[in-house]
Amino acid sequence: MRNLVLDLFAGPGGWSHPLRVLGVRDIGLEWDEWACRTRAAAGLLTIRTDVAAYPVWPFAGRTHGFIASPPCQAYSMAGKRLGLLDKPLVHQTVADLAAGRDTREKLLAACRDQRSLLAAEPMRYLHALNSVGEPEWIAMEEVPDVLPLWKQYAAILRSWGFSVWCGILNSADFGVPQTRKRAILLASRVRTAEPPTPTHARQAEPESLFGPGRKRWVSMAEALGWGATDRPVPTVCAGGGPGGGAEPFPSGARKALADARDRGAWAPRADGVVLRSRMKGSDWAARQGTRENRSADAPVWTSTAEAHRWSWSLRSNNQANATVRSIDEPAGTLFFGHRANECTWVAAPSPGKLGGDESTAPEPIRITAAEAGILQTFPADYPWQGTKGQQFSQIGNAVPPRLAGHLLAPHLGVVFNAEQFTLAA
Fold this sequence. Notes:
Elements: E1 4-8, H1 16-21, E2 26-30, H2 33-41, E3 45-48, E4 63-68, H3 87-98, H4 104-108, H5 121-130, E5 137-142, H6 147-159, E6 163-170, E7 181-188, E8 200-201, E9 215-216, H7 220-224, H8 257-262, E10 266-268, E11 274-277, E12 284-285, E13 310-315, E14 324-326, E15 344-349, E16 365-366, H9 369-375, H10 388-397, H11 401-412
Parallel strand pairs: 1-2, 1-4, 2-3, 4-5, 8-9
Antiparallel strand pairs: 5-7, 6-7, 10-11, 11-12, 13-14, 13-15, 15-16
């Protein structure tokens, strides 16, 4: 393959999916078994390997674009952040690799987190590729705390003749229904490297003499296809949950569908739609299919008076300082790992509505992988593989495809088209 795009730490396809949408295919290097299975199910080219052990020579003379999103667990707020203590060692490794000295084994022995040096691996590839005048462009992404390392990369790349930009971008500014901030590095040999122009803002901005207007940040409700605020969140039905995803019954109790029916919490309808009671003695609310696939004579969403008493929010975990966002806002940064089962939809009495109080609120409902994937801007039908925990881990570690599309389009010489990146089914 000539003019290939090499994608290190490729994950489930956060970069690969938008590349394919934009008309380009990459080769992803990834170690995680379930991320590789997801990529295979999605039809993405993958080499399952340890990025730190794989040789660079097979790509020399063939690499047009270079992408890297090193694992962020060593630096993430969701982890122990031992990578912050290893930063001097990572900077030293990058400097040594840029000079052609491989000191990884020695420096790795001194690291507190064995994953810390993975953030230096892109430099091993870039040094080897630069010797043959490659790649033409580079895009890298990590958590905000890695920005000082990206600045070190930038200085080295400039000395090699690249134009480079690095900084922090908020995913919500580019149509992602999530205020996920990331440290980004963009570099090019043939054009001025600069960040994409934001398309969205916290509040909508009209067009002016200084440029086009910006839309309001995309809310979770809009992304998931829940529509206006008169459409309450989680209802289970035969056709899938909101946005066409899997039904959002709490995963810990998913085995108990029959038990729930026995308790009177569930009731089948003659046409096969399963209805879930929001609270004891309440009316039923149901939905069949999605707006796009619902037939003309199919029953429409039934919004009950009881459901209107509640407003729904997404709580990132069950810690005291957890981020809680209304469905009318973007989500906070989604991260999972050992907290996968703690990210829940929670209900509170709707302002101005009578009859609702905290003691009678519906129970929290755990987010599904399909919903989480949509909030990362993966397609609703993306073929996630593995257990729920493995799927959540892939989603939380991925770059949002819509953000990646904005970053990649200028390097590919194409115009980013938001219509190509649909969210809900």
